[in-house]
Predict the structure of Cytochrome b561 bacterial/Ni-hydrogenase domain-containing protein.
Amino acid sequence: MKMSVTKFDRLARVFHWVSAVVILWATFSGLFLAVVKVESEWQILISEFNISLTTVFIPIFCGRVVHALRTQKPAYQGTLNALQAKCAHSVHIFMYLLIMLIIISGVLMMRLEFQVFGIVSITPLLKDVWLCEWFSTIHHYASYILAVLIIVHVGAVVWHQYTGKPILKRML
């Protein structure tokens, strides 16, 4: 008989908050660069940092996925009804899939060799410029969708906390 857990285990919480910081930074700084004209030095600095940060994030995200698949999730314990729980689960799955798509397309869109924090050089996996552009387009649109889902996700947490359903305690 499985015992009901009330919060995510420590490793899941660490994975979540590290992921949140990396994904929030990469998504919104990347969208900022796509929308706002900034000086080229800043564009290069932010882009290189994002590439390095998200490259280092790849094994962390893989670990998060494996851990999520192997561990029991805490029950919502009356904070969500069945439909809300189903919606939350669906949004989480979609976010995981989008993050995977963004990571894969991000790697495949690279046309030039890049440095990871000046330590390791990584050569592009694809040589075909058209394919790189295609993956770049996928990467950008998936990032826009993820930004919307992040806003929905955070908004839902804030709403539930505000209405007296302490859902955040599962992840703290």
Remarks:
- The CA atoms of residues 34 and 140 lie 9 Å apart.
